[in-house]
Amino acid sequence: MRAPSIVIAFSLLSSACVVEAGPPSPPPRREAVVVVEREPPAEKVEDPGASPGVEYIWIRGHWVYSGTDWVWRSGHWVARRAGWEWVHGHWEHRDGGWIWVEGHWKKL
Asked: How many CB atoms sit inside 10 A of residue 98's CB?
């Protein structure tokens, strides 16, 4: 009675599909749920230093609201994605307060 199990296992293994490789899709654009009543401070000017290479871009830092005060989150280097451009995150005034709109990759 082992033969049917082997046939079933073989048929499941031989029915694999092929998926073309491509760049990973960007995470969905998400916005913060919390509305902050206090306006964020002006952006800090950061010195990113030397780029690790031409295939990197600088993601600038931004203010994060801790629940009681503003805290600066420093920028960082990330690898470029061919065929995509980075759209920086930003604070947007909306609904009587400020909402963080996440940075994201946008297909060219």
From this structure: 19
The count of C-alpha atoms lying within 13 angstroms of the C-alpha of 57, restricted to the half-sphere facing its C-beta, is 12
pLDDT in the model for residue 19: 38
**CB distance 36 to 98 below 8 Å:** yes
**pLDDT of 33 above 70:** no
Could you give the dihedral angle defined by the CA atoms of residues 74, 77, 82 and 88, in that order, rounded to the nearest 10 degrees?
20
Query: CA 88, CA 104: separation in Å to the nearest integer?
Result: 7
Closest CA relative to residue 105, chosen from 84, 78, 79: 84
Instruction: Please give the helix or strand (H or E) that residue 64 lies within, else none.
Output: strand 62-65
In one-letter notation, the amino acid at residue 33 is V
The string of pLDDT tens digits covering residues 37-85 is 999 999 999 999 999 999 999 999 999 999 999 999 999 999 999 999 9
Please give the pLDDT value at position 95: 81
Token pair in block for residue 60: 């600038």
